[in-house]
Amino acid sequence: MSVELNHTIVHARDNRESAEFLAHILGLEVGAEWGPFVPVATANGVTLDFASIPPESITLQHYAFLVSDDEFDAAFERIEERGLTYYADPHGKQPGEINHHHGGRGVYFMDPAGHGMEIITRPYGSHPEPAGRS
Length: 134
Prior knowledge:
The protein is an alpha/beta fold. The protein has helices spanning 15-26, 69-81, and strands at residues 7-12, 37-41, 47-52, 62-66, 86-87, 106-110, 116-120.
């Protein structure tokens, strides 16, 4: 058997709020609560298990999701409908923009716990960058 990521735990102030937020943006379903976790499964079988912990214990993380062009359009529309601040870069220097890296599109936004979320339409390194761009 090859090694695959099966699940990861995502710390949240409110596990239900964070799970529902991400599921809504990405057009996914929130699974049945299981013990202290509220799961959201991705198409490739990886489950994000949201767990409520005290806010001061949350270590902010970055989660990137590869989506189709149509899924990007739908997710980006939901980001705009919610009035979320979004960026073309992970450092928040390009607010209100998306990027076109790797021959696709990408955008960054924050979830309710403060984690950095990213949606991209092309994997990193899948398309050569034009000269002079990074």
